[in-house]
Amino acid sequence: MDAVDLTTHPGHLARRLQQGHYLLWNAMVSEETTSPQFAVLNALMAEPGLDQRGVGERVGLDRSTVAEVITRLSRRGLLDKVRDPGDGRRFVLRLTPEGAQVHRRLVPRTARMNQVFLAPLSAEERAQFFGLLRRVADAAEALRSPETAPPQAPPVPQSPMTSPRS
């Protein structure tokens, strides 16, 4: 069997994008605060008082990952877990003053990093790129839901020179 062209595999390209993002993030944004940690800080800046599940839903992190991120941010003193006065079984999350300060410091850095990361694209291409990424990411997100069956792939067209059993 011949080797495949990995540039036609979205997972391969997504991994390469993630590697580039990781390198730029560490160089331009922060070596202490990861991109997922920033996403949690950002969600809590936008909606103080979310619970852990709500934060995970807002930023697209699974339960175990969001739990780990919240634990790390809490240990660093960037967020507090507070018992919900309306439901004693539930904890809500709030940024500490230091957490809000870290968020404010990182916002302009993330904007600069995104400019560098997307520099190969024109403004029109960026809009198209984000639209396509969102569509694929939303479809992938739906796969995590047990009630959502994976979509069936369309049949691969057969060339006239290829028999179905080749």
Tell me about this structure.
- This protein is mainly α and 166 residues long.
- 57% of the residues lie in helices and 9% in strands.
- The chain has 6 helices and 2 strands.
- It has helices spanning 10-29, 35-46, 52-59, 63-75, 97-117, 123-143; strands spanning 79-84, 87-95.
- β1 and β2 (87-95) form a beta hairpin.
- The longest helix has 21 residues, at 97-117.
- The protein is globular and about 60 Å long.
- The N and C termini lie close together (11 Å).
Sequence-ordered SSE layout with sheet pairings:
Blueprint: H1 10-29, H2 35-46, H3 52-59, H4 63-75, E1 79-84, E2 87-95, H5 97-117, H6 123-143
Antiparallel strand pairs: 1-2
Secondary structure class reads mainly alpha
The total beta strand count reads 2
Q: What is the CA–CA distance across the termini?
A: 11 Å
- Show unreliable segments: 159-166
Shape designation = globular
Mean pLDDT: 89
Strand content: 5-15%
Order of helices and strands: HHHHEEHH
Biggest beta-sheet profile: 2 strands, antiparallel
Strand order of the largest sheet: 1-2
**Level of helix content?**
55-70%
Number of helices: 6
Radius of gyration: 20 Å
Descriptive keywords:
166 residues, mainly alpha, two-stranded antiparallel sheet, 2 strands, disordered C terminus
